[in-house]
Amino acid sequence: MVNLKEKSKKRKSIVWIVLSTFFMIATLSVLVYFLIFLIRNGINAISWDFITDIPRKNMTEGGIFPAIVGTFYVASLTVLISVPLGISAAIYLNEYASQSLIVRLIRLSIRNLSGVPSIVYGLFGLGIFAATLGLGTSLLSSALTLAIMSLPWVITASEEALKAVPNSFREAGLALGTTKWQTIRFLVLPYALPGMATGSVLALARAAGETAPIILTGAAFFLPHLPRSVNDRFMALPYHLYILATQHNRLDLVRPLAYGTALVLIAMVLLLNMIAIVLRYRARKKQEW
Amino acid sequence: MDKRIIKVNDLSLWYGKTQALQNISLDIEENEITAIIGPSGCGKSTFLKTINRMVEIIPSVKIEGSIRLFDENIYDDSINLVNLRSIVGMVFQKPNPFPKSIYENVAYASKRHGIRDKAKLNEIVEKSLKQAALWDEVKGRLNESGFSLSGGQQQRLCVARALANEPQVILMDEPTSALDPIATGRLEELIQNLKNKYTVVIVTHNMQQAARLSDKTAFFLSGKMVEMDITNKIFTNPKNKKTEDYITGRFG
Amino acid sequence: MNESNREELKSRIKQDSHKQNLSNFFIEKIFLICGVLTIVFLGLIVWFLISKSWPAISEIGLREFLTKTRWMPSSPIQAGYGALSFIVSSILVTVGALIIGVPWGIFTAIFIAEVAPTRIKEVLKPVVEILGIIPSVVYGFIALLIIAPKVAQLFGLSNGLTALTGSVILAVMTLPTIVSITEDAIKSVPKDYREASYALGVGKWDTIIHVVLPAASSGILAAVMLGFGRAVGETMAVLMAAGNALNMPIKEIFNIPLPTLLQSVRTLTANIAIEGSDVPWGSLHYHSLFVVGLILFVITFIVNIIADLMLTKFQKVNKNG
User: Fold this and answer.
1) In A, which residues are within 8 Å of B50 by CB distance?
2) Cα dist. A130→A29, C37, C67 in Å?
3) Nearest CB to B98 within list A182, A187, A287
4) Where exactly are the structural domains of chain B?
5) B162 to chain A: which residues are within 8 Å by CB?
6) Residue numbers of the domain that contains A7
7) What digits encode the pLDDT tens for the residues B54-110?
8) Among A27, A36, A50, C281, which is 20 to 30 Å from C311 by CA?
9) Chain C: partners with 3+ C-beta pairs within 8 Å
10) What confidence score (pLDDT) does residue B59 get?
11) Cβ separation of B79 and C14 shorter than 8 Å?
């Protein structure tokens, strides 16, 4: 009797182990399969010309240079706006704020902002920046939209970096008769900077991969030239991929270019993430004592 | 001339609704080492931090009564907090050098206070490290990280860092509790020498340390000061029964 | 200490710190303003969604948006503004994604938390995170080229751009969210619970099934809700995978209308993306897109609030435990 019970118990635990192992393997397989699929199909399209040439013959030939540059522009401009704002907000929350109503509201807003769908940001950006403020569909409208969208990511990462700074630095700074701002500026921030840089690079990577918001606010189907100012529209890798994959009138002809674009996009995003990981790793190593 | 540099009068302190200090009154004299002893949670560290108002970095703190430094109430609205903390330096329980070079650690406060002249800074760093009895050990490697030093050296670096401000009073919050016996001995020696120039207030839970080092000793219990007297007297002939119980090791 | 020295120190303690305090005050306020901007932005989003929706709502009525299925906003003869099929499609695709993604994610999390040795765990976590950093347009591309043909083949359809295709790709996309939050929840169940159970002679897996998972349940539920929020708000993948046909995903079987995953559908997000880039600004069509956005916002807002409450509850329970 006891033996039987033991046996069924054992069987049950085996079922759970097998199930969880199966799903874990499924997760890894999917990831590996997707990556291999993209690499195998995309690698042939990649060439020096593909990276450096403009699209030619109705995008059926040539390269994706304007899309790469456009993505670089819009992601950089996004980070340029959201990182200073995000770091400042994080400094307020972690260094100055006490438990007040305004702080609770700020935290609530950050959580809610991070849950707003990207297409709603796009709609919002279209409504406020492009239409109401008269910026039109442009690089600037897109970057402002993406900046608001990435603000919660930057704030969260920066706050984590600030939390990792030992309190003893702050105490020692204040006890030495230096002001709170001096303590933050010269003791807390240098120490938190690598963590903040990591968060910023991750934000850059995510902004570079976003499509929905820029469709509504400034990405262009095709432009023969690079954006000349922030008021110009721009080509972007993710939007370019979307067009090559679904919107082109000769899908069969542009398929290789679509594979190549997907590979370049994902390589770029993964590379940025790797840079972030290296930054974090080096910062951690430096901080060990 | 009045030798009493700090006069604490009827000081009470609350963390939120919990009272941590009750009606403390005591005087601290110039160029003496005053030890504050008592079991953990008796309020001795809290009291120490009221002298440079570091206690206020906790937002819910409420304070009544007064502390006079040179007959100025440091809890007056007109007090310059930054200057107060330069004049009343502090050394913490755990050595806490900044993640900067030895040189930058000592020069940190002076730089923030606007001293830019390199020669002047060099002079301050050398003088402070010498006073902290660390100069000979580090003079060849001032650009190395403060963390490269041993625990005892780090704590002396923290003393040097405070001395660079040319303080009058140095507060020490159990400065040897994280150190080994040899490092402790060296720091105690340093503290002894400091009293020639500075006034030292030291919190310790090590009664031998208080007996060895200090001129006066105050005994705290449950947020109240039980008694304060010449150290010798406290340890040989305390007036209060509770003090006697504590120093003879019957509790705490 | 001589008298002059003493006077000098006195004056230093009393030195006017007004300027210093003032500059520190302003510095703090600048940071505060940056923090408050988050409130402003959220407020602006809500305000814009409502105010830009308003012309459409007042002219057409919210009722048509929520109950009708005919969406023809640019038709010059008889315009239709029924967004019901978008709502149903969004929810259908999302529920489909969760049916696949939730067990998948939870078991993956159980593997990471309970089966994998520590060193493998440290590798697995960032690997699963990679799924979260792949841009959604790439997922859409993959769905289009890998999943859609499989769906078409499996169900004998002429093309595989269906709700099911969208659900499958969304399931993969929600995995990182579900896995990491579930794993966190399992990990933060207090050790005492386990130990008490072991002390009673209960085996490891019985303890996990009957003690750990129930204790982590509100955390896991939060993971599911956040997965829902992420999936329902996802644009590019469903836009590229689900076909975007304007119809209700309903099939009648024995005269009973049942939802079906095997039809081409257009979600709330996809509709905004398709029409938003070339809609004439200020037109009724433009405002009606904001109504669609508002509906989407309200759905995600509610779902995220529930997830938040669940997480708070979970943290509270485990603090007491």
Assistant:
1) none
2) 43, 20, 31
3) A187
4) 4-247
5) 175-176
6) 1-42
7) 988 888 889 999 898 888 888 888 888 888 999 999 999 999 999 899 999 999 999
8) A27
9) A, B
10) 80
11) yes
Question: Considering the domain boundaries, does residue C93 fall inside one?
Answer: yes
Q: State the Cα angle at B73 between B69 and B77, rounded to 5°.
A: 135
User: How many domains, in total, are found in chain C?
Assistant: 2
pLDDT band at B245 (very low <50, low <70, confident <90, very high): confident
**Residue C277 belongs to domain with CATH number:** 1.10.3720.10
The CATH number that applies at residue A242 is 1.10.3720.10
Chain A to chain B, count of Cβ pairs less than 8 Å apart? 64
Task: For residue range B147-190, list pLDDT tens digits in order.
Answer: 888 888 999 999 999 999 999 999 999 998 888 888 999 899 99
Test B84 with C6 for CB contact under 8 angstroms. no
Whether the complex's predicted ipTM surpasses the cut of 0.85: yes
CB-based contact B70 C9, cutoff 8 Å: yes
**C93 & C231 share domain:** yes
CA atoms within 13 A of residue B26's CA, in its CB half-sphere? 26
> Are C158 and C276 members of one domain?
yes
Amino acid at C228: F
Q: Which CATH superfamily is domain B4-247 in?
A: P-loop containing nucleotide triphosphate hydrolases (3.40.50.300)
What's the Cα-to-Cα distance from C180 to each of A29, A273, B174, C204, C270, rounded to whole Å? 18, 18, 43, 22, 27
C252 plus C110 within the same structural domain: yes
Task: With beta carbons under 8 A apart, name residues in chain C contacting A128.
Answer: 44, 48
Closest partner residue to A179 (CB to CB) among C20, C269, C301 is C20
Q: Which amino acid, residue A208?
A: A
> What pLDDT is recorded for position A79?
95
Are A78 and A176 in the same domain?
Answer: yes
Q: Are A175 and B90 in contact (CB < 8 Å)?
A: yes
Residues within 8 A of B (CB atoms), C 2-21 only: 3, 6, 9-10, 12-17, 20
Tell me the shortest Cα–Cα distance from C257 to chain A, in angstroms.
30
B51 → chain A, closest CA residue: A175
For testing contact with chain C, the best of B80, B88, B198 (most C CBs within 10 A)? B80
Q: CA of A168, closest CA in chain B: separation in Å?
A: 6
| Mutation for testing the B interface, residue in A98, A168, A176 having most B CBs under 10 Å | A176
Ramachandran region of residue B117, left (φ > 0), alpha (ψ -120 to 50) or beta?
Answer: beta
For C3, name the nearest residue in chain B, comparing CA atoms only: B1
A127-151 burial, b at 16+ Cβ within 10 Å, e below that, comes to: bbbbbeeebebbbbbbbbbbbbbbb
